[in-house]
Amino acid sequence: MRYKPKFDNVTRKSIVILISGRGSNMQALLEANLPCRVAAVISNRADAPGLAIAERHGIATQVVSHRDYPDRESFEAALAVAIDRYQPDLVALAGFMRILTPNFVARYQGRLINIHPSLLPAYGGLDTHARALKDGVKIHGCTVHFVTSDLDHGPIIIQAAVPVLMNDTPETLAARVLREEHRIYPQAVNWFCRDYLRLDADGKKVLLNRVEQPGITLIAPGLK
Ligand code: GRF
């Protein structure tokens, strides 16, 4: 019998990735050998370095600059047209630095996810690493979540925790967290593309199937 891949082009889901800058999470998704097709990368900034990375991977790119529109609504209308051209099953925000209106979020309910560099619900918003250091927390991390109109507070899909070390600066801590972002974001997209993961009808709870829960404790600083 001829080998038939489990995820052929007919059953494969497609995703659109939205970026604003460096694009390292986008790159992690492109290089993760996911069981889905990345249909396009869209940036709200023409100078986003991530665009060139996407092009090197042969992915269609597009710029929808917020500066070309008088208000948030008209920018989002243009963004939605750009996204919907590809009819994606999933829209993945990867360092996309625009706040989205409840209307936009509702349009993509259950198929809009984000990666955030903190253990939500702690440290929503910006400068998460500097704020965590200032507070003296010993454990920090990153979160992939469904996007709702409550900024950085949508239902959580997966988190990774890292220790905060004595001599950390915002930069060293950011680098430690970013390594984990590059692991958990592809994992979340992988689950979504395999239909292991979805948001419940109320848009409040993550439903996750067939996922192991090893239950390892991270204690920082370590016990002696
Ligand atoms: C990441 O830390 C991500 O968690 C946050 O913005 C940063 C984007 O970095 N939302 P990159 O563009 O993916 O390299």
Question: Would you kindly provide a written description of the structure presented here, covering whatever features stand out?
Answer:
- The structure is a single chain.
- The chain is an alpha/beta fold and 224 residues long.
- It is globular.
- The longest helix has 24 residues, at 170-193.
- Helix 1 (24-30) packs parallel to helix 6 (170-193).
- It has helices at 24-30, 50-56, 72-84, 102-107, 128-135, 170-193; strands spanning 13-19, 36-43, 60-63, 90-93, 112-116, 139-146, 156-163, 197-199, 206-208.
- The termini are far apart.
- 35% of the residues are buried.
- It folds into 2 domains: 13-108, 3-Layer(aba) Sandwich (Rossmann fold); 115-209, 3-Layer(aba) Sandwich (Rossmann fold).
- 29% of the residues lie in helices and 22% in strands.
- It binds 5-O-phosphono-beta-D-ribofuranosylamine (GRF).
- 5-O-phosphono-beta-D-ribofuranosylamine is lined by residues 19, 21-26, 50, 94-95, 115-117, 178, 181.
Bound molecules: 5-O-phosphono-beta-D-ribofuranosylamine
Oligomer: single chain
**Alpha-beta classification:** alpha/beta
User: What's the helical proportion of residues?
Assistant: 25-40%
Topology diagram in text:
Elements: E1 13-19, H1 24-30, E2 36-43, H2 50-56, E3 60-63, H3 72-84, E4 90-93, H4 102-107, E5 112-116, H5 128-135, E6 139-146, E7 156-163, H6 170-193, E8 197-199, E9 206-208
Parallel strand pairs: 1-2, 1-4, 2-3, 4-5
Antiparallel strand pairs: 5-6, 6-7, 8-9
Residues 19, 21-26, 50, 94-95, 115-117, 178, 181 line the site of 5-O-phosphono-beta-D-ribofuranosylamine.
